Amino acid sequence: MLPKGNFSRCLAFAGLSLFFASAVEAAPSSSPVGTANVTVADPTVPRPPGKPCVVQLFSNDTFDDFNTRPFSYTPPAGCGTHWSKVVLEADFSVTAGVQFDRTATIFLGGVNLFFGTTQEPTSTLAPSWHVERDLTDYSALFRKAGQGQADIGNIVDSTYTGVINGSARLLFYPASIVAPAAKVPDVVYPLGSDPVGSTVLLDSSANAMTTTLTLPRNVEHAYLDVFTQGQSTPDEFWYTCVPDQYASQTGECGGGNFREAEISVDGQPAGVAPVYPWIFTGGADLFIWKPTPGVQTLNFVPYRVDLTPFAGLLSNGSPHQVTLTLAGVNNYFMATGSLLVYEDPHASRVSGQVISNTLANQPATPTIGSTLSTDSSGNTTGNVTTNLSRHFVIKGYVNTSHGRVDTTVDQTVSFANTEIFDITSTIYDQTSKQLTSVEGESTSKTGAFVTGQFHQSFRYPLYMESDETVTASTGDLTVFTNIRQGFDEHTALSIDGFPLYAADVHNHHEGSDSIVYSPDFAILSHSGQNSKQDFTFSDSLGGCYRASVSAANDVVTAYSSGNACPGRQNRVFWFTEPDGAPYQGEGFLGW
User: Fold this and answer.
1) What is the rounded average pLDDT of the residues 408-423?
2) What pLDDT sits at residue 28?
3) Which of 391, 441, 527, 588 has CA atoms 20 to 30 A from the CA of 14?
């Protein structure tokens, strides 16, 4: 949360910046209608005024094996050490041919800079795409030289011929009077990776991504950015699985469909991070995602966990273990995390402790229900439900240079999944309905004065219908797939009841297609492919972003940008996060 003393200074700078630094989202130089190349509705990262300093991390690297591509990093010369914004830009492509979707990561000094997947090519199309990530909160990492690596493990042989290429750079925007240096974490720590950086494999709930750290003696706030992504069967499609006792009856993967990251400090539960159901560009029906992939598929957004109630404990000079485990994991998840620490600038030591923690007595154990029935002919109908909702409150305090600060994290995290089946000798119909939601608030008080109140709510809706029909005369299998997924986020920042800022992000994708397979599962044809992505952002400062892209038969059929905004033009402010990237009170309007 924002320190009490920053309140008037924050508003003054906010007004100055709002007056000068409204950023207009650039429209495509030409209409993408008719293209088969990757086209998305997502906004790019808004930029402050001024020319950035650029540091190239790697350029035109080829990814055709499972070796990492190392690079060396040197801070930008003549650009200072405190910046108004730091942005990662990366460009990728894959040659025409046959290739799987691949996982892509970039690390520096053990810290993750980028996590996403790749677009699948076709025999006639070599797709290319551009991604961006706001890394301003990671500025402390970029003030010293270090070693990094990019990793896109890829097979290239006589069958899988697509070669992936990529480049990445960091853009540093110098601080100015209209774009002051951002108030960023003082230290960034990698969680559970090697010194250069890699994801951590979690293949059972007993596995852990963990690190032991001795933190500075003056930690005032702490946050953990988390990525958890399912890979390999069955966890690539974890959201369609059923509990083991129903796997044989339904013919589905076992292990259940509940997944949730559990965060602990020294073994004490400290927070949870819901798992977003990202879908690879080869997932479910590979044609649905051409040319528009699913929500965040090419560029994941991390989930941020507020660990500030533990700040006093973390400052006591002893080593502390920060750990992430994954409830429900059933074979293969990859995870990475970064711990962001703010220090008290006017005290070399602080003290404090955790006061109460109701999460500690609430295990991540969902309730399972079923109406499945199988008749004498072997036909199975009914559904399987999985539900879990937990409300918890964690309180802690820190004795800082500006008094005792009490922080309360109050959250309700819910998960609901229903798998609906209709199975006979000639059809296999399954519908998955899933909703993960978070409703939470972090509140900081100095005495009776509320120095910061940050509210967040998330909704991750997913609907997936798969109808399979066997043609008796040929044995061919026709599979109709219909998918809808979304990312909904609302945030609001206030001080002592005075609202400072609120924002809403909605990213929704829907698509359907029908594929005909031969008895040996070779694709014979597909038809009816269509998809649409809608992306909207609005905030209390008047920022507005609207974009939509539609596709059919593997090409873009419609594209609009800014149409529903004032003046029919997207306009956002350079310090906002229109893509839904995490922020807290410290880094927003907190110069």
Assistant:
1) 98
2) 63
3) 441
